[in-house]
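quick one
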Amino acid sequence: MIDSKNFIETIIDQDLSSGFERSNLRFRFPPEPNGFLHIGHVKAIVLNFELAKKYNAKINLRFDDTNPENEDQSYIDSIKEDISWLGYKWDKECYASDYFETLYGWAVELIKKDKAYIDSQTSSEIAAQKGTPTKAGTESPYRNRPTEESLEIFSMMKKGNFKQGKHVLRAKISMSSSNMLMRDPVIYRAIDSHHPRTKDRWKIYPMYDWTHGESDYIEQVSHSLCTLEFKPHRDLYDWFLDFVVDPKKIRPKQREFARLNLSHTITSKRKLFSLVENNFVSGWDDPRMPTISGLRRRGYTPDALKKFVATAGVAKRENIIEMSLLEFCIREDLNKKCNRLMVVQDPLKITISNYPEQVEKLSLINNPENIDSGSRNVVFSKEIFIEQSDFLEDPPKKYFRLSPGNEVRLKGAYIIKAEEIIKDPSGSIKEVICSYDPKSKSGSGTPESQRKVKGTLHWVSCNSNTPVVIREYDRLFEHPSPGEFSKENLVQAINKESINIFNGYGEKELSKASVSESFQFQRKGYYVKDADSNKEKHVFNKTVSLRDNWKKNQTL
Ligand code: ATP
Ligand code: MG
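structure w/ adenosine-5'-triphosphate:
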């Protein structure tokens, strides 16, 4: 997938050439089950899983489940579903919570070796002693508390004898380290909350930094890849490992790559959660969401998402990728794969006065990009629908669609000419009466069928069609960098009109479509059938337009 060598592969190759056993390579993807995966995660998934493929190495899916307050089994399930949907298989499904007992044992060892202590200050007292990057912190008055006392309190914390926040376990590193994260970080805190896996067994939970490196070590992960914001955590990662590593075993190595940032969207589970919670969207899988499940429902394919992250590349420095690249990737993919169909979204009735009462079946090619896709029958009749926007009573110059006295070709059918407009009492156009040229049928070989007219319109027969509900989406955020807004102010960045619903008509063929099947609706874009459909109601989500309208629409 990623064809040229990225800098992570260079690191691995160097390790291999300096004697690291290839068979000891092991990777992991470590999501916290506190929300649904998003487009940013796709980058980390593709990176890790493609590395495993390339080096024929094992890869674990590890749930970093150390914050029971925010985690849920439904998130675990969705994460597994999304990775599988992308086409990847993990070797082992692991949970940091499976290591809670081991981690607890190691923490006790830390205390015994005078490398950790129980601090009984409040969190704000501890924070006030942190210092600044240029000013050393202040040592806690509990820093030199007797080992026995720390051990006893820690054991009581484990039993749930204290309220949250009463005591914490801190590593005893240095309050004057230039790396603020090394200033006696908290490694355990009491939490009285139900955990999706360990249920109510634990009353204390290990912090991320303590858990992550040690879990990598337990699983014998060789290269632990994370995003750049963890770079300052690397010292801590190594400090913790120094304490447990057996020199005969693999010592995991943390390396960092740049996050994927996408314009006009957010990639933070916490903020995405607030969109769901405040009902700005219908759920985590709302087709406007940048979650994998939202993108899937929007009609994105695994191939397009993989192509997108491969094109964005694996870098050491942060940058922002334009949304139009993501759209380009799905458009390219669907163009090759999708059959074409005609759908009128906003119908205007046309009656062809000189066309007989009978109907006729026309044969149309399904996908000119794919000769194996075959053709289908489409019914043509005296009464048809075209788009409202394809007719103008008073057209400007260079309007090549239908207007009084002007000819257009109906896609795969005949040339028609607008003769008469019928209006309702309010003056709006109800119907247009046209005439047609009976010899102009597409593909009939007559000289008239070759006749060039400037406009070609899509259409649907009034006699034979499938009523459809079309959901057209605009970007969810008006602002190009909604990530800059706090969770509370996110509403200000939101586009209030990001969904438009139309009741239109599609070709009869469309009633056979299955949920998740994608089509090109001619002249309009790519659409996917949504799970909200039923026998009577065929709902389609617009994935992307045929051309890039992005720049044109940009207002900021
Ligand atoms: P969030 O803020 O969305 O919760 P996170 O980093 O806390 O993001 P995790 O579930 O802990 O989410 O992340 C799992 C893995 O995915 C980590 O290795 C993380 O570095 C990586 N990851 C998360 N977001 C991105 C992103 N935008 N680009 C690339 N990798 C990412
Ligand atoms: Mg995280």
